[in-house]
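The instructor's notes for this session suggest beginning with a concrete chain rather than abstract definitions. Hand out the sequence below and ask the class to guess, before any prediction is shown, which regions might be ordered.
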Amino acid sequence: MTTETFQGYIVDLACLRRYPHAELLNRARRHTVECAMMGHCVESGYALVGNEGGLFLLDTGATPLVLAALSRTARREGVALQSRRELQDGEMKTVGIDLL
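After discussion, reveal the predicted structure:
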């Protein structure tokens, strides 16, 4: 079975689209849980921004897993997560989101 793991700071796509590429990591480190859980932000989906500034877009199936992780953290901003994806029916699908 093909499995992939990615780590980074969670940012909703609505906010991510407004950030200059050179500022992605710094902005992701300051992105708040409150913002990430707002209605329009939840609807936009999520991405992880890695420590090297790399960007990994999460599939729509990750959204409820991200929300569950965000509801478990005591952090108010800069939440780092790990995403696990597996090959299912010919597509990579998120099967787990863990707090780091």
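Then share the key points. The mean pLDDT is 96. The longest strand covers residues 3-12.
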